[in-house]
Structure formats: structure tokens, C-alpha cells
Amino acid sequence: MSEAVLTFLQILVVGLVTAALRGAPYLLFGRRPLPPVMDYLGAVLPSAIMVVLVAYCLRSVDLSAPPYGAAAWVSLLVTVGLHVWRRNTVLSVVAGTVCYMVLIRTVFPL
Fold it and tell me: Whole-prediction pTM value?
């Protein structure tokens, strides 16, 4: 089997598994009301995941040497500011990422 065919089959399997996992809740619950624990998790997990991602991103910021993580802190402020202003998660995450990449390549090179 050629490498291209093998790669295609791997992508196909990953896609099918992803689709099955995303469709499973609809198959399991259908039109029935969700259990209270699922409603609770749906309300709490998005914020909890964002906190974990922020902590993960800031864990390696070196506060003991210049520029003291300035690029990360500025990007974090841009992300939070945009999210508070526009309430658009995709916009704020993309803008924060672009801001960080521009800052570490131009203003605060590593």
C-alpha cells in the first residue's frame, strides 16, 4: 500500500471517529431533556477550559529576565479586552494569537 493511500485511510478513520464522537450525544439523548449534571457541565466547562488554557500558555513566561513576558501579557490583555468588548471567542483568540506572534517576531524577539 502506498504512503498516500495509507495517509488517506488514516485521515478517513480519524474523521469517522470524530464524527461518531460528536454525534453520540444526539444518539444517546435524542429529544429527551438532558440530565442535570450535563446541563451543569455545559455551563461550567467552557470557562474552566479557558482558565486551564491561559494557565498552560503563561506557565513558561520568564518573569526574572527582560522583557519579563511582555509579549504574553500584552497579548493576554488584547484577548481579554476584545472578548469583553465583542463577546466573540474566535475573534479574541485569533487576535490574541496574532498579537503574540507579531510581538515575539518584531518587538520582543526571543
Answer: 0.66
